[in-house]
Amino acid sequence: MNTLIISIGTREDVNARVKAAAQGMPQGSRLTFPDLRLLHKTLTPNRWTIIEHLQRQGAMGLRALARELGVDSGNLARDIRQLKDLGLVEDSADGLVVPYDAIRLEVVLSRAA
User: Fold this and answer.
1) Contacts from 50-57 at CB under 8 Å and sequence distance 24+?
2) What per-residue confidence (pLDDT) applies to 35?
3) What are the Cα distances from residue 20, in Å, to 1, 26, 44?
4) With 90 as the cut, is the pLDDT of residue 76 above it?
5) DSSP at 48
6) 34 and 90 in contact (C-beta within 8 Å)?
7) What is the pLDDT of residue 16?
8) Cα dist. 66→2, 11, 31, 80, 87 in Å?
9) DSSP string, 13-25
């Protein structure tokens, strides 16, 4: 299963994963944000709705997606551009797709030492 893990982590966390990957340890597909605020600002409720709809319905064109979601195609195009930049949506021969079988969101809150 091709799963994307979206998480919050420090630069040190990301560097540790890069180092582990360089040593041949599989890391899987990851998208890491530096804090919860930026994650929420980037992955808005509307963008999650787009991802969920494409996951359920499969590939579709921008106009069809706008019609099914009941949103303006101009605003949708801006959201799609952002999701493409993040690698969460791609173009295929059949239309827009989410290139992952599953997306997992990891948010870990730890007690201070």
Assistant:
1) 50/76, 50/79, 50/80, 50/83, 50/89, 51/83, 51/88, 51/89, 51/98, 51/103, 54/89, 54/96, 54/97, 54/98, 55/98, 55/103
2) 87
3) 21, 8, 31
4) yes
5) H
6) no
7) 64
8) 27, 36, 26, 11, 20
9) HHHHHHHHHHTT-
Six token digits for residue 12: 């040190």
CA distances to 62, 95, 109 from 106, in Å = 29, 29, 10
58 backbone dihedrals φ, ψ, rounded to 5°: 85, -170
Q: 19-53 pLDDT, tens per residue?
A: 655 666 555 688 888 888 999 999 999 999 999 99
- The pairing of strands 95-97 and 29-33 is unpaired
CA distance 78 to 73: 9
Record: fold of 3-106: Arc Repressor Mutant, subunit A (1.10.10)
- Residue boundaries of the structural domains of the chain: 3-106
